[in-house]
Design a protein that fits this description.
Layout lengths: L1 H19 L10 H4 L3 H6 L2 E10 L11 E6 L4 E5 L4 E4 L1 E25 L2 H13 L5 E3 L4 E6 L11 E17 L4 E3 L4 E5 L3 E3 L2 E2 L3 E6 L5 E8 H6 L2 H4 L6 H17 L28 H9 L3 E5 L2 E2 L4 E2 L9 H4 L16 H6 L7 H9 L15 E6 H10 L9 E9 L5 E8 L5 E5 L1 H6 L8 E7 L2 E6 L8 E2 H9 L4 H8 L4 E4 L6
Parallel strand pairs: 17-24
Antiparallel strand pairs: 1-14, 2-5, 2-11, 3-4, 3-10, 5-7, 5-8, 6-7, 8-9, 10-13, 11-12, 13-14, 15-16, 15-25, 18-23, 19-20, 20-21, 22-23
């Protein structure tokens, strides 16, 4: 066994030495291509989208730590690496190797979180920054806030942990060809005249490979705003939605992307492609109706005070929209108001605020056909949950131990729209209660579709939740927008209904 390990170490050492000492000469001056300025790209009308994250690491499901195969259907691929390597061919193969570091170092930091959303993480980062700490918002698997580790740090109110890890190797991309192995350094720029295929998936024309803050790599696509929207609308609201609803979605998706383009600043790109940002998939064929909606609104964004708004949206609000502070630990935005999502006559019959369990039960009993978006599958829902289900979620989130039991479940605070903003879970651990706040409720108890619900205890181990809606409930309800469009409302009227104080402006204001 020792002989096998000795041979393996000798082999890895040889590979590392070979890669480290391979030299390639090029006269290419690539500074302009490799210089990434995130704010400048937004002003040019481009997003940098993190298509595949954590490449080369344990969570790399795309290349499985082995290989990225990039193929040009037409013409050639061009690769430029920061260490001066230039490569041109019809196909590029990049794989990952772990190269030992000569002088290993220990990485230390204080980690706050996880947070259910970027918004809540950002609020905590701002609070710590106000106390004089240098903060970083990160997303290794969940949203976290980092501050540098120091021996004499005080105790913090918020849950935190010390992260300490010895870094003794570096995940390094290498370019493999028939006759050579070339070590690459980031950023790495890859481009082609036509769309290219990566591991069998069709993407665009301009890409970066960027090293992230976790030692792994991200495949980043550089894409114009409207091309990006062509890959968002079909998956966020559906390509067969009415044209006016698609127009409204195009405007808010563009606006949201611009406002939130700082989410991945630390890793040198703007947005991801999951529900933590906006769902995006490179379209194989662009739907004609989607394209028409994008073109009709291509220079428009929603603004407040001549600045893009944080244009939140969701699947269904259950008949009443939420203000921002009901859903996240963030400031209130004046353009988000809780409104009854229906006709003027419905608003005369139903009044806000909804402050009690009985008020919300009466609201949920009201004829749902009078609301916009009532045909959504989760507009009204019921769910039985057991103490065991709750316990499993609490253990998974390290809030209780395996020997603890759940005794009771109560809503102890509601927002203006009736949504639960504080949920108390009583346990037998020294009569300890766990209080989940706002977006943490659905992060921990992720089987709950929304925070708009009432609680009825059926027995000692079982509760019935009765609720409405799917998602956070802030801003535009996609199911509501679809129904409004079917009723003849224009995209301007739809946007004014959900963002009452916001104004439509041309995107040129970003350059002012």
């Amino acid at each position: 066994m020792k002989l096998k390990f000795a041979f393996l170490n000798l082999f890895l050492g040889f590979i590392s030495l070979f890669i480290a000492n391979t030299k390639f000469i090029t006269n290419l001056n690539a500074e302009e291509l490799l210089n990434i300025e995130l704010s400048a790209e937004i002003k040019k009308g481009n997003f940098l989208i993190g298509l595949k994250q954590y490449l080369g690491g344990e969570n790399d499901s795309f290349s499985k730590k082995r290989n990225i195969e990039i193929i040009a259907d037409k013409g050639f691929l061009n690769l430029i690496s920061s260490n001066g390597i230039k490569h041109k061919s019809k196909q590029i193969n990049i794989s990952w190797v772990d190269i030992p570091i000569k002088n290993p170092k220990t990485i230390e930091r204080i980690v706050f979180g996880p947070f259910a959303s970027y918004e809540s993480a950002k609020k905590q980062a701002e609070k710590l920054k106000g106390q004089g700490y240098e903060t970083t918002i990160a997303y290794p698997k969940n949203w976290e806030v980092w501050i540098p580790f120091e021996d004499d740090l005080p105790e913090f109110e918020l849950k935190n942990k010390i992260f300490r890890k010895l870094k003794n190797f570096q995940i390094t991309p290498v370019l493999r060809s028939e006759y050579s192995v070339m070590k690459l350094e980031g950023p790495i720029y890859i481009y082609a005249q036509e769309e290219i295929k990566i591991n069998g998936v069709n993407f665009g024309k301009n890409f970066y490979l960027l090293k992230d803050s976790y030692g792994t790599w991200t495949l980043v696509q550089k894409i114009e705003f409207d091309d990006y929207l062509a890959g968002v609308l079909p998956y966020e609201i559906g390509p067969n939605s009415p044209l006016e609803a698609l127009k409204a979605q195009a405007i808010i998706a563009r606006t949201w992307g611009i406002f939130n383009s700082d989410r991945f600043n630390m890793d040198k790109y703007h947005l991801c492609i999951t529900t933590q940002c906006q769902v995006y998939k490179p379209p194989k064929i662009i739907n004609k109706k989607v394209q028409k909606a994008i073109e009709a609104t291509s220079n428009l964004i929603l603004t407040y005070g001549n600045q893009p708004i944080n244009a939140f949206y969701h699947g269904s609000n259950g008949g009443v929209s939420a203000n921002a502070r009901e859903s996240w630990q963030i400031q209130d935005y004046s353009y988000f108001n809780s409104v009854i999502d229906g006709s003027k006559s419905l608003n005369k019959n139903l009044k806000l605020p909804i402050t009690s369990e009985s008020d919300l039960n009466n609201f949920l009993d009201f004829d749902k056909e009078q609301f916009y978006g009532s045909n959504h599958s989760l507009f009204r829902w019921t769910k039985k949950i057991s103490s065991l289900e709750i316990k499993e979620k609490l253990i998974k989130n390290k809030l209780i131990d395996i020997n603890d039991d759940v005794l009771d479940l109560n809503s102890i605070e509601r927002g203006f729209s009736g949504r639960v903003t504080k949920l108390e879970i009583q346990t037998n651990k020294g009569n300890k209660s766990i209080v989940l706040v706002k977006d943490d409720i659905r992060r921990v108890l992720n089987f709950i579709p929304s925070n708009l619900f009432t609680i009825n205890k059926l027995n000692d181990d079982l509760w019935l939740l009765r609720g409405g809606g799917f998602g956070h409930g802030v801003g535009l309800s996609q199911s509501g927008a679809i129904e409004m469009a079917k009723l003849g409302f224009s995209y301007e009227q739809i946007l004014n209904h959900y963002y009452q104080d916001a104004k439509l402006k041309k995107i040129e204001i970003l350059s002012q």
